[in-house]
Amino acid sequence: MDDNENMSGVAARKLAIEAVMRINEKGAYANILLPQLLERSNLDTRDRGFVTELVYGSTRARRACEWLVERYLHSEVDARVRATLQIGAYQLVHMGMPPHAAVSATVSAAPKRVRGLINAVLRKVASGDNVWPNQATELSYPDWIIHQLSTDLGEADAMAALAIMNEPATVSVRDDGYVQDPASQFVVDAVGACPGDLILDMCAAPGGKATGLAATGATVIAADQRYKRTKLMQSNVDKLDASTMHCVTADGNVNPYRPGSFDRVLVDAPCSGLGALRRRADARWHIDAASVGRLKAIQQDLLTQAALLVKPGGTLVYSLCTLTIAESIEVAENLKVDGLSFEPNPLGAPWRPWGTGGLILPQDQGTDGMALFSWTVTTD
Predict the structure, then answer these.
(1) What does 284-347 look like in DSSP terms, one character per residue?
(2) pLDDT digit string (tens) for 268-299?
(3) CATH number, domain at 86?
(4) Pairing of strands 219-224, 357-360
(5) Whole-model pTM over 0.90
(6) Which tens digit of pLDDT belongs to each residue from 61-76?
(7) Is residue 313 situated within a structural domain?
(8) Which domain holds residue 274?
(9) Which of 8, 6, 11, 5 has its CA nearest to residue 104?
(10) Nearest-angstrom CA–CA distance, 264 and 318
């Protein structure tokens, strides 16, 4: 490695340390923070890619990295030292980098006062017998996620899902150029939109599913309760020339629409996101077990309100990118509205049977995990 390469490697690691420290200590979101830091840097394309791998990868693997280094720490260290050790352990164990290169450059990126400590700990990690104490540590998830998904999916499916969600998400591009995970495209297909339909996408931002629905020739009302996110949807309308999609700012629990107005209503509900963790490196550390119950109540209210807006004989679709029974099967089973009946619509491939609806696990198609329920709504 020449001097220029060594200098760029140190600069890249310094930026990664800064990002990881702010994610760990300040609760910063990696997908928001890292692009800002990279934009202000002078790093070339290769080094930017390296930083992205260090930050996203070591954030996913935070619990594993902490275990790797804490065995060799005999006193508390500050946030910068901890972040430095985290990216160092990630390079050694998860990226499989040669120890001399990973340790040397990481030590050089650390403050001089702690370089001896960083060097000693990382060399022990490099030569240590890294036998994981349990699957939660090896896969680097909070215990509650391991327990929740093992209970809901069965241990084999849960472990396979959690393992694949530690891999970077693949990029999938629709024919119109919009980047969208195939699981979300499966949701669009399940809505069954037809030209001339009037469709409400109740929780539409950032608008991927809504633009997909509009591409069928249907008229789509794409709603979000936050004006900023409505503007984001409008920018996607403009880019894709989705002329039959109309963006509105509206709260799904305070509907401005007449009952029975829509041929089809999609509720792509806010959820714990446990099926899409590969896309958000820090998400597993931001959400807690209590969130599932809080979100379930919100989902139930949104679905009930949405049901009132479907024309008799129309279609109601409920989707969410999580894998918990509470947020999917239990919400669907509790859908009850006076005067309305809900007949489940059958779902074929690629959906697994899941209650009266369907489920896609990340390992099934190499996509995000997704649950979906579809009903034909009739009056009693």
Answers:
(1) HHH--HHHHHHHHHHHHHHHHHHHTTEEEEEEEEEEES---TTTTHHHHHT---TTEEEEEPP-
(2) 999 999 999 999 999 999 999 999 999 999 99
(3) 1.10.940.10
(4) unpaired
(5) yes
(6) 999 999 999 999 999 9
(7) yes
(8) 182-379
(9) 6
(10) 11
